[in-house]
Every structure is written in C-alpha cells, then in structure tokens.
Specification:
Structural class of chain A: alpha+beta
Largest sheet of chain B: 2 strands, antiparallel
Order of helices and strands of chain B: HHHHHEEEEEEHH
Number of domains of chain B: 1
CATH topology of the largest domain in chain A: Glutaredoxin
Distance between the termini of chain A: 39 Å
Helix content of chain B: 40-55%
CATH topology of chain B: Cytochrome Bc1 Complex, Chain D, domain 2
Oligomer: heterodimer
Helix content of chain A: 25-40%
Strand content of chain B: 5-15%
Distance between the termini of chain B: 61 Å
Radius of gyration of chain B: 21 Å
Number of helices of chain B: 7
Order of helices and strands of chain A: HHEEEEEHEHEHEEEEH
Strand content of chain A: 15-25%
CATH superfamily of the largest domain in chain A: Glutaredoxin
Shape of chain B: elongated
CATH architecture of the largest domain in chain A: 3-Layer(aba) Sandwich
Structural class of chain B: mainly alpha
CATH class of the largest domain in chain A: Alpha Beta
Number of helices of chain A: 6
Shape of chain A: globular
Chain lengths: 223, 148
C-alpha cells in the first residue's frame, strides 16, 4: 500500500529530479538514484552512520531452459525485470514487445541481463516458458531469462521491484498487474522504474540504462 | 436605405447559425478507424499491423482476415480463444474483446465498421469483392453472434 501511494503521489519522479539537481552540483557523471526505503544505522565506533538501502528480495528461479537463476547468480550484473504470464491477454504482449525493442538495442551488452518473471508458475512450466520466449522472438540461450519461481516468492519479488501484481479473478487472464520495468544494479538495488506502456518512459529507460552500465563498468575497474 | 425583405432578415441569422454548427459535420470521423486502431489494437498487433513474433498474429497481409470477413465484427466484440492459423503459422494466444477502456463500453457497430474498414484497407489488405463494410453489414454480423 505504501509503495502504491508512493508511486501514485509521484514521489519517485521527485526523488529522481532531486538526484538530477544534485548531480548538477558535481562534475561527476549523473548517477541514478537508489529507490526504495532506507535505514540509517548508527556506527558503533562513533563514525558516520551507515545508510542501508533496500535490495531485491532473495529468489531462486528456473528459466526457459531449466537453468537456475538466483539473486546471487546475478550479483555484480545489471538486470532489467518485468512480470508477465504466458496466457496474459492484456498488457503483456505490449510490455514484452517493448522489452524486446530494448533487448534488440542493448541485448549484446556484457554484464546486462533481462529477467521476465511469470506470475502464473502453475501454468507456465519450463516448456511453456520456452515456447513463449521462442514465439516472442527472444534468441535461444541468451541473456534474456523467462523464469518461474514459487507463487509466494514471485509476489514478494514483485513488491520488492515496485510492481503491482496479484491474482484477481476479475482481471483478464486471472491476474492484475502493471507493466513496470525495474532496473537493478550489481548490488541488488533498484535504480530505475519505467512504465512500459508509456513510450516516453521506455525512451527514458534507454537514456538511463547506459548511465548504470557505465557506473557498473567503473566499479568493475576499481575492484 | 430600404429595409431588406423579411425573408432576408430571417435567413441571415439562420445561415449564420447554420455556419456556426457546420464544423460539427466535419468531425474527424473519416479517421476514426485509424484512431480506434491506435487506441485498441496497435499495442498487440503493432503500429503497422505486423503482429508480435509468433505470439500475436499479423493483420498486415493476413489471409485470415480475407477468409473470415463475416466473423470479424464478432471477433472485435468478443475476442478470440483457441488456436488459429494465419499465413501458415499457428497462433494460440487469447485475444480480448475490444472495449473502450474509458467508458468500459463495447465499441458501437459504427465504430467497429470504421475500424475494420481501416484494417481491411491498409498494409497490403484489400476490402475484397464486396467492397468496404457498411454499418448494416456489421450489425448483421453482430446479431449472428448474439451481440447488437
């Protein structure tokens, strides 16, 4: 509920705007904000307090080729997520069609992955996901994973990734959800949220994604 | 100056009023089909009717459209379930019936007629020997599947 009202009131764009303004004060390249709740913990040694940022909930999922995917296997990688289901007659084709366009542009970037979580794991078996990926036109054996995990886990994940998703008998196909793309950094922080149904938002994603990729490359160099 | 005849005195304001109302006759109706397509169909079937992979069938150059003219009104109203073959490719994705999302109402027979005439006259599609649809044809199709 809190997240919903947060999204509705436009706090996130404000935060993003504030980050943009702050970036203007420095000579460093613009950095995407870390989204979500944060916790400030006092330092027991008396130094500056630590800020603990929210991270994507832990998950264990299997992709369209039966391969395991976890948040640990994605550690250090930038990834873009959405939530769909194979029989979805509503917004999913549009949403995954938009993600396909982003994939066609950025899919070959090393260190970038695409993850589409099914919210209907009962129906969407490995075989169904494999067929869906193929029909959508996502290349086989690629870094775009169509994954299933347990129902509990996927709805918790959706919350962690700021996506409204829940079973709803009245909704087309039996699930109500929105078309949010979430951009996640190598430490599991959500760095961008985009409404896939709005062409302006998809354009913003294509502008912001290179910023995060540059940041990831920078931190790889340092380590 | 002599006073103009009564008929002119009446006619002038009536003409003026008529002119003021005229723009109402030149609505954008002839582009209604195109607008409805962008609003209700393009999300899945693509801006150029190209479809999406082999998940969503194309409308451009579609043999299914040519072969199912009599069912198209009902497909727009009620959607479609179960497998179909379009240009030799099998598709099996549920299609929802088209509703105006703002009003949650069905498209009217006139709207469906304009929409189908747009689809059937673009992207390599041809209306066929029967020519463009009439509202009466759409109404007859809708009656046949229990709609109105």
């Amino acid at each position: 509920m809190f997240l919903k009202s947060l999204l509705r009131r436009g706090t996130l764009p404000l935060l993003a705007g504030a980050a943009l303004l702050l970036a203007g004060c420095q000579d460093e390249p613009r950095r995407l904000p870390i989204l979500g709740e944060r916790d400030v913990r006092a330092n027991p040694n008396g130094g500056p307090a630590d800020t603990i940022f929210a991270t994507v909930p832990a998950f264990r999922a299997h992709d369209q080729n039966g391969k395991l995917l976890t948040n640990q296997s994605l550690a250090g990688q930038v990834y873009l997520t959405d939530f769909f289901f194979a029989t979805c007659p509503g917004i999913c084709p549009k949403m995954n069609g938009e993600l396909l366009k982003v994939y066609q542009k950025f899919g070959q970037t090393p260190g970038l992955h695409f993850v589409s979580f099914t919210i209907d794991p009962d129906h969407d078996t490995t075989a169904v996901l494999h067929d869906y990926a193929q029909r959508l036109g996502a290349p086989a054996e690629a870094n775009w994973r169509f994954v299933r995990t347990s129902k509990d886990s996927v709805f918790a994940l959706a919350r962690g990734l700021f996506t409204a998703a829940m079973p709803d008998k009245a909704a087309p196909g039996g699930f109500a959800h929105n078309g949010t793309f979430a951009l996640v950094d190598g430490r599991g922080h959500v760095r961008g949220l985009y409404d896939s149904l709005d062409p302006k938002e998809v354009a913003r994603l294509q502008e912001e994604l290179p910023l995060l990729l540059a940041e990831a490359q920078e931190s790889r160099k340092k380590s | 100056m002599p006073r103009p005849p009564l008929i002119v005195r009446w006619l002038a304001p009536a003409l003026a009023a008529g002119l003021a109302l005229l723009p109402g006759c030149f609505t954008n109706k002839q582009h209604q089909g195109e607008r409805l397509y962008a609003q209700h169909c393009a999300g899945c079937h693509g801006e150029q009717g190209q479809g999406l992979g082999t998940l969503i069938p194309p409308l451009a150059g579609s043999d299914y459209l040519a072969g199912h003219r009599a069912q198209l009104g009902c497909i727009i109203r009620q959607g479609l379930r179960g497998p179909i073959v379009v240009n030799g490719v099998r598709y099996n994705q549920q299609m929802l019936g088209v509703q105006d999302t703002a009003t949650h109402r069905h498209l009217s027979p006139a709207q469906i007629t304009n929409l189908l005439n747009y689809i059937e006259g673009h992207w390599g599609n041809r209306p066929g020997p029967a020519g463009p649809r009439t509202i009466a044809e759409t109404q007859a199709q809708l009656r046949a599947c229990g709609e109105r």
